[in-house]
Amino acid sequence: MKKLSARRRHPLAAIVVLLFALAATGGLYAAFAPAKSAQAEDAPSSIAVEEGKKLYLSGCSSCHGLNGQGTSDGPSLVGVGAASVDFQVMTGRMPLQQQGPQAVRKPTAYTQAQSDQIGAFIASLGAGPAVPKPEEYALNGNVPAGGELFRTNCSQCHNFSGEGGALPEGKFAPPLKDVDPKHIYEAMLTGPQNMPSFNDQIMPPEQKKDIVTYITGVTKDEPNPGGLGLGRLGPVSEGLFVWTFGLGIVIAAAIWIAARTPKARNK
Question: Where is the Cytochrome c domain (predicted)?
């Protein structure tokens, strides 16, 4: 028993344990090597944040504050996410040209790369919706389902054909013709200005894609066989408009003719 105990406590046993520990360490290092590679791939993200901060400080901080906390001239941007930045910047609504009821669409002041950098900085301030991927707003959704969703959730403001409409206090729902599908998706995701937001819990991505597909098809591919669309208010509303307008012209012409008769002149 003493000899067996002596063999178990042999000094070489410590060396064997050490070698085994070194081998295990090497295996763990090899297993986690891809994680380091992933960290290297994330390096451009940090660069984008820094570049975005520079752009933000030079062009956005005067209204939204140095840290995105908001001021009396602009709301807080903490938690709005990169999707909101992409929508506002790449539709030209931001930077704001002048104060008014709402920001309007205009030519962009930044490139897509610069917008992405600003979005990366804003996203670093607080969690928010990310810019959707191309497959999320691809035009391969269910058109009938999208039409039903649009009429239920959007047509009250944007008109059932996406022509837009007036809102209180000088605000308006903009027309959806020629709007980039990505920006339509981002508007639903972030709820800019007067529009409610439809996050993925309220409206799943598949339904958003259906709406984007429907809107794009209606506003770009739907013909006007009768000539002018007149806002596509529908045959009853459009017929009433034409009848009222035409009747007004007839009445005005009758009054003008009556005023030029000899009897009218003698009076």
Answer: 47-219
In this chain, the answer to whether the domains covering 42-130 and 132-223 adopt an identical fold is yes
Among 226, 179, 255, 53, smallest CA distance to 187 is for: 179
Answer with the residue of higher pLDDT: 227 or 79. 79
**Token pair for residue 252?**
């005005």
Residue in the block written with tokens 């930077």: 95
Number of H helices, E strands in the chain: 11, 2
8 Å CB contact between 121 and 80: no
Q: Which CATH number fits domain 42-130: 1.10.760.10, 3.40.50.720, 3.40.50.12780, 3.30.110.10?
A: 1.10.760.10
The one-letter amino acid code at 109 reads: A
Long-range contacts at 70-76 (CB < 8 A, ≥ 24 apart): 73/99
CA dihedral 111, 117, 120, 125 (to 10 degrees): -110
Predicted TM-score (pTM) of the model is 0.70
At 172 the three-state DSSP class reads strand
How far is Cα 208 from Cα 62, in angstroms, rounded to an integer? 34
Among 135-139, 228-232, 245-249, the minimum mean pLDDT is found in 228-232
Residue ranges per domain, the chain?
A: 42-130, 132-223
CATH architecture entry for 132-223:
Orthogonal Bundle (1.10)
More confident: 139 or 25: 139
C-beta separation of 77 from 122 below 8 A: yes
Residue 38 has pLDDT above 60, yes or no: no
